[in-house]
Write a structure and sequence with these properties.
There is one protein chain. By secondary structure, the protein is mostly helical. The protein has three helices and no strands. It has one domain. The termini are close together.
């Protein structure tokens, strides 16, 4: 997968998570999926995106 395509996929994933209603996200967490709200916040998503892009640049 090229870097540009991977960037678009990651951005799309972030946009979808940002659009997810808060109650749905809370229900997902209550369902025992192992996710923590703090790990799913916008800052965590940005940090993940930056880390992924840096990893891809090293290739």
């Amino acid at each position: 997968m090229t870097l540009e395509i991977r960037q678009m996929v990651i951005k799309s994933d972030i946009a979808q998570r940002a659009d997810k209603p808060a109650r749905e996200s809370a229900a997902d967490n209550d369902a025992g999926d192992g996710c923590d709200d703090a790990r799913n916040g916008p800052e965590a998503l940005r940090a993940g995106l930056v880390a992924e892009l840096e990893r891809l640049r090293e290739r």
